[in-house]
Amino acid sequence: MTASRTASPRVSPPDTANNAAPGDDHPDVLADLIASLLPGDVPVGRDVALGLLRRHLGRIHAQVQQRFEAKALGGLASARWMAALTDTLIRSIYSYAEAMVPHAKEQDAPFCLVATGGYGRGVLAPFSDIDLLFLTDDEMTPRGERAVEFMLYLLWDLGLKVGHATRSVANCLDDAKGDATVLTAMLDARRLAGDAGIFARFTQRFTKARGEWGFGHFLAAKRAERASRHARYGDSPFLVEPHLKEGRGGLRDLQTLYWLARYAFGVQRMPELVGANAPGGGLITEEEASAIRRAWDFLWTVRFHLHLVAGRAEERLTFDFQPVVGARMGYTRHGKQDGVERFMKHLFITARDVARFTRMLEPAIERAALGLPAVLPAPDKALAEAGFALADGKLIAAPGFDFREKPVLMLRLVKLARDRGLDIHPLAFRALIRQSRHAVRLRGDPEAGAIFLDLLCGRDAAVWLRQLNEAGFLSRYLPDWARIVGLMQFDTYHVFTVDEHTVEAIGVLGQLDRNELSEIAPVASELLAQLQSRRALYVATLLHDIAKGRGGDHSELGAVVAQEVCPKLGLTPEETETVSWLVLHHLLISQTAFKRDIEDPKTILDIAEVVQSPERLRLLLVLTVADMRAVGPKVWNGWKATLLRELYWRVAEVLAGGLSVPERDVRVARAKDAVASLLKGRPKAEVERYLGLGYPGYWLSFDPQTHARHATMVAEAASGHTPLTVRTRVLEARSVTEVTVFCTDHPGLFSKIAGALAVAGASIVDARIHTMTDGTALDTFWVQDASGAAFDQPHRLARLSVLIEQSLSGRLKLSDEIRKVRREPARLRAVTVPPRVVIDNHASNTHTVIEVNGRDRPGLLHDVTAAISGQGMQIASAHITTYGVRAVDVFYVKDVFGLKIENDRKLAQLREALVDSLLPPEVVPAVAAK
Asked: Name one GO molecular function term (predicted).
């Protein structure tokens, strides 16, 4: 028979309506392939066989991929069809090996070829491993070992990843008893070829052994395995780059439920648990079984697409794959929401549903297998009157009390668990999940509002909120909350979805309340204890991002939502106004601290005019700290904490003084007097020369100690006739390194220094640029390393100084060196940041303020500042902030005459040059690149 007989495998695809798996036997395809390998019962040569098998494998993948990408099959059906077609390949190889490996003269003991793992369950992703077990009654014979080796080498030569083991039936039982991973693999065992009697004996003994071992040890092992897996791959179902297989809410969690049901009841599919006559007495409803099936199919569809796009067994859905997979699945822009964000929201909601299924089904399986818990009467009258009892030492609804009849019991349950330090019984949480839809009847209910506020503002609020969110209660009780569940922003700044970020922020408030962050955020920790509007703060934190994803300014929209929600929760009109105001202005402190010159009196007065109240200032600072620390572990650092504290104290001082600041000349005189007192003992001429160098802006930008260090630098440079002086100082408390450069001023100085710092691997977080009265420049940069820590290694600091000198002398070709700097990971390149330039002549009385938004890259600051200098502008200060891959840089600039830039033509030219500088180097217009 020729190879053409294998041209088109004729296995019908599975039923797409119910994702049923095709049958195990496909005599048409199997017979054709075996006939090609064994024409006339004489085996072809190995090279010929390998070619036939390779073509067959290619057709398997091409056929399944074609039907899948045409949307004729869903992910689960495709995985089952892929496994069924792979069966024909494996069985053919078995038959070929049997013919190719000669039999010994003595009687050979047979063996059985068994599929295990995911392949044993009859599902395969395009690049999944194939797990095989070579099963014997006793020890494998030499001839059997040769056959196994022959098969494995064929599979490896085909490019397949094969997990394999050779065991006797007794070995299987011994290994399974001591290793939960082996035990789990055995649960999925499925015979492919070989001696059927061996597999039957294995199945019989394995089933009997499971009964003897009991369900409890397997349940404990799977729970421990799941906890370890979640700790490694993500303990939240709302991480923005989720692991589809191993993360919380992923495929492995669904498989764990299946394994538990399979072990306890011997079922093959989850729908077998539906109905009163089902094992366990009907553990799930038909609606729940359908929801599990939808989640299973959706996750498999995403996984199938991910494998095909990546061209490998990729399980983590990183930023670069998200838009591609989302587009392949048909998610397009809808209103204000991008297609990728709609796709990820669906994925996160599915992950939450899987976490919910686990909470709901696992305790039911446990109790059906091990017996119902003994429900003991409540230990005291108050608990009994509230409608609760104890089971296994955990809270559960007492007989006769039903969440459907009295939904407020759901909130009472959570409050009592918190107040008494008790756990909620898994069966009670199962009821909470199933009956959460009745929470809609609690909207506006005074008792429900009082309990909810007590939970929100009380101990371990984040724990209870996360549970209520996972149960679906919050989405029913607060309809606006449902719109942010699973909502992500397609950027690298936010680590969590909006709902999970909000719960994290509530958790940070709790940490501040318990004084656990006194070293990290001492001012916020102290202020929280002084607040008069504590309930307003917690509710504002709950609602601060409630309007994200609606289009428009989420702060403004959220303030309106707060006006509607707060009265329903039982807040007073005064509290409602405070919450709405906090939501409206919750970004004010952070945006000002990181984007504006806080030494500029107008900056402080502008904030004071908005805040107007010391209490509101305290509330804003605490909310800002909670919001920032909840974004992700790398967002908060000592430098940002310092900026927030300094801004708070400056505004607080203004508010305490009646919204006024000392006149500029008075402040300059005070600064000079302070440094003069520190310089006593130095030559008078030296001190007077230094005091005459700085313009007013310089004297208002630093503290007296820094001025004294600058005076020493200036004096040493003058005495040594040094044209360039570079000093570095590590500020551990602020997580930054201060780099001070003193030299003759010239156009493009900032750009050259910024380029040298980029080549050195330093990231600039803030800068102050000062031209002195004698034409010298005293520029200060605060830098961090790539991890957001101080740039503190001695050899790197030494190299940094050398690079600055080489850059300023022209011996360093910045453009060439910057291109050598390590590029960002490929997964981040999919996140786009449109270039944006905002020029503001109202934020400062003395400078034009330029805000530049663009994609961060090595040398970006060098390019942007070169564009500013190229337009004849002088940079007075720079404030550098990054949000993931988005850079937001703010510059205070003047023209060559020391004035604001107010000419429309010049502003237009400046804007055009800056936009060009934000483009990637390969697309910068030729004119701009000259």
From this structure: phosphoric diester hydrolase activity
Rounded CA-CA distance 458/453 in Å is 8
Strand ranges of the sheet holding 112-116, from the earlier edge strand across to the other edge:
162-168, 130-136, 112-116, 190-194
Instruction: Give the span between the Cα atoms of 433 and 414, in whole angstroms.
Output: 13
Phi, psi torsion values for 47, nearest 5 degrees:
-65, -40
pLDDT in tens, 693-739: 988 778 877 888 999 999 999 999 988 888 899 999 998 877 889 99
Same domain, 64 and 199: yes
Residue 201's SS3 state is helix
Cα separation, 884 vs 1, whole angstroms: 61
Distant-in-sequence, close-in-space partners of 584: CB < 8 Å, separation ≥ 6? 555, 556, 558, 559
Question: H or E segment at 191?
Answer: strand 190-194
Sign of the CA dihedral with 74 first, then 76, 80, and 85 last = positive
Q: Answer yes or no: do 240 and 334 share one domain.
A: yes
Q: Coil, helix or strand for 235?
A: coil
Residue at 265: amino acid letter: F
Final residue belonging to a domain, choices 341, 370, 399:
370
Are 194 and 227 contained in the same domain? no
The number of folded domains in the chain is 3
> Domain range for residue 850?
714-929
d(CA 517, CA 532): 21
Closest CA to 785 of 757, 744, 808: 757
Residue 534, SS3 per DSSP: helix
Cα separation, 584 vs 314, in Å, equals 42
Residues 731 and 756 in one domain: yes
241 shares its domain with 289? yes
Cα torsion angle, 56, 62, 65, 68, sign: negative
With tokens 């310092």, the residue in question is 642
Q: Identify whether 232 is part of a domain.
A: yes
Among candidate residues 352, 370, 388, the one where a domain is terminated: 370
Give the DSSP H or E segment for 390: strand 388-391
Check which CATH number belongs to the domain holding 154 and give it.
3.30.460.10
Task: Kindly give the interhelix angle for 704-720 and 684-691, rounded to the nearest 10 degrees.
Answer: 110
Calpha distance 668→682 (Å, rounded): 21
Between the CA of residue 647 and those of 197, 309, 322, 593, 641, what are the distances in Å? 79, 48, 39, 6, 10
**What is the chain's length?**
930
Q: Comparing C-alpha atoms, which of 719, 784, 779, 787 is closest to residue 744?
A: 779
Q: Does residue 392 lie in a domain region?
A: no
CB contact at 8 A, 324 and 343: no
For the cut 60, the answer to whether the pLDDT of residue 4 exceeds it is: no
Residue 376 in any domain: the answer is: no
Q: What pTM does this model have?
A: 0.79
Residue pair 675/704 in contact (Cβ under 8 Å)? The answer is yes
Is pLDDT at 21 greater than 50 in this prediction? no
Distance in angstroms (rounded) separating the CA atoms of residues 854 and 917: 9
What's CA 209's distance to the chain center, in Å? 42
**Same domain as 833, residue 730:** yes
Q: What is the pLDDT of residues 158-184, one digit of tens each?
A: 999 999 999 999 999 999 998 999 999
Q: Answer yes or no: are the C-beta atoms of 890 and 596 closer than 8 Å.
A: yes
